[in-house]
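Case study B.
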Amino acid sequence: MNIDWWALVQVSIVTIVGAMAIVSLMSLANWFLAPQDEAGSTVSWRRVGGYALIGLMGLIVAFGIYLLVPYFH
Amino acid sequence: MPIEAMVVVVVITALVFDFTNGFHDSANAMATAVATGAYKPKRAVLLAAVMNLIGACLSTEVARTISHGIVDDSLVTVEMVFAGLVGAILWNLVTWLLGLPSSSSHAMFGGLIGAVVVMAGVSGIHPGVILSKILLPALVAPVVAGVASYGATKIAYRSFRDASKGSKKRFRTGQRASSLMVALAHGTSDGQKTMGVITLVLVAGGMQTPGTAPHWWVIGAAGLAIAAGTYSGGWRIMRTMGKGMADIEGPQGFAAETSAMAAILASSHFGFGLSTTHVVSGAVMGTGLGRTPDQVRWNTAGRMGIGWLMTLPASALVGAGAALLAHQGVWGFGLVVAILVAAAGAIKVISNRNHVSSDNVNDDHEVRVFGKSDKAIPTTTQGALATPLAPSLPKGITPEHPLAATPLVLTRLKKPKSKKGKPKPVSPHQAPLPGLAPPPDPVDSDPVDPAAPVDVVGRADSENRLEPVAGEERP
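Model:
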């Protein structure tokens, strides 16, 4: 009986780091865009940063779909 | 019994198993979205069904061995597959009745193990593979997903205190996206399970050449079966997953489904099999611990854990029994079918005593089988105030606490939004917070109109909370 412990460790690390990273992106985007939600507009760096992060999350979703769909490999 | 007839029956049984697989795992993708309102219940299961169908049809590589080396595949006969499926279906139905999330894959493996052991002996199974492919992942998956989800929840709730409408909307979109992806992932992984089973049965029955790809109708039928099962909702399990372990808010749903998705992708990439049910349950538990650690319902989690431990033995026992019976001949085979149908009917009838559907899935956190829920609607207001209902004491208040003797106050837990115009069930609830004036004796005051709007008051405590909580009615 051989258990691939290293694969298990890799899965754990990737899961934990990956999930926390994605939620951090979302939280950061919210923090950037919070004044805009309240007051209606905000400084440009916040707007650019916020939307850039949201775009990044969209790319991550696309990457997830790429990993998921067998056709792509 | 002619082999073709048996193959037909077994193929149908496999599709039935696929249907139960669908409604069992519908909650994995959509429970958090339904519980937080990111998707309306009916729309949630429709989308999940579509994603499952797409996922199932996308999976072009069907598992060569349905058991992944757990049993010796050269020993597996059509009868054993049938018996294994029967064990899995019955286990899925019983856990559905109890509202317990459980792994359909493990149920199928268990049923197959039982059938093989009884018919071909203990040498037919490989315990080492069982340990490394079933038991170890079952222990690891919830923990890994839970830790990831816990960390993600802490991040989500620490980085900003004020919840702007925009951030709520963004979390809602995130929730929707992650839930759809989990549904897609589920379709790709579990869809091929049944396709593999049906193909195996066709090969064993001599109706397909070994080593060829599954027929198009097998792919279509399996995909439709799992999609139909997903659409039927599995609301009992949906309720337990979304509300039974902890109360979930939007960001928590996002954290949980994202962690689950990360775990699923990572594990399939590194070749380490994880059950979707275990992963999502662990993630929901982790997120509950991340925001409200003292309000996690440990007894529900405990029951789920026991259910998971019992999955293999229980389905193996039923599979073994079914295999023995089916082996007796045509009458035995027919008897197994009859018992399966009768059991399914009985379970359905019992489930109607406390029916959970898309309309009431969010009304309670408990799935009851027998017995009346203590959140039952009183027939008249006077009757409600006069009869002592038996409420559950709120946390931290023992029967000896002075506040435990306060008379009952009717509290509405949610703002009424019922489409049919019926008022939502009003729950008897004792005054929970020390420091607030205890309400006057209700029998003396004017009758309370349950349809009157109730002030929604924020709860004065130190919990992280982004949304207000319905408070007590002020007389």
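The mean pLDDT of chain A is 88. The remaining cases will be described in the next quarterly update.
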